[in-house]
Amino acid sequence: MNAKKLRKNRKKFQMNDKVWKKKKLGITLKYAILGRSSQAKGIVTSKFQLEAKQPNSAMRKCCRVQLTKNGKVIGCFIPGNLAQKFIDEHDEVMIEKIGGKQGKTKGDLSGVRFQVVKVNDQPLRRLWKGKIEKGRR
User: Fold this and answer.
1) Mean pLDDT of 80-100
2) Residues 55, 102 within the same domain
3) Is residue 137 in a domain?
């Protein structure tokens, strides 16, 4: 008798569980900027600096990217020391999720969930290490 009551209550209060509800209703996919994909291409519209959260006082280099697949504009982090020199306005970049827990922001970057991986089909990491030069478009 007791197990039946526990099962019934579990079913009754299932909608109160936020994680279960989001998964069941497909809310995370509905509002996901990249959709089901892990990477997306976009065009750089502007570059800006973001002040890191406490206790850090650094200025993190970021850029605003307009996605080609759906036209949404998002902010992306530019990883690497002086790597922002290799990214200009109207460049085509490939972005991916940074990898914060539960799809949220990572570290001291507030509101930035994505980072730049490639610039004009060339890896950004190899560009700022000096192994290759930036391609012309």
Assistant:
1) 92
2) yes
3) no
* Structure confidence by residue, pLDDT tens digits, 1-22: 799 999 999 999 999 999 899 8
Q: How many domains, the chain?
A: 2
Q: Clarify whether residues 117 and 60 are in a common domain.
A: yes
Q: How many CB atoms sit inside 10 A of residue 54's CB?
A: 7
Quote the pLDDT of residue 122: 93
Enter the pTM of the model: 0.82
Does residue 66 form part of some domain?
yes
69 plus 17 within the same structural domain: no
Whole-number pLDDT of residue 99:
85
Residue 135 to residue 47: CA distance in whole angstroms: 20
Please write the tens of the pLDDT for every residue from 100-125. 887 788 889 988 999 999 999 999 99
From residue 115, how far is each of 5, 15, 94 by CA, in Å? 49, 34, 9
Q: Which domain holds residue 16?
A: 1-31
Calculate the alpha carbon distances from 129 to 65, 86, 134 in Å. 23, 11, 12
**Per the domain annotation, does 23 fall within a domain?**
yes
Q: Which residues lie closer than 8 Å to 78 by C-beta, 6 or more apart?
A: 47, 61, 62, 63, 84, 87, 115, 116, 124
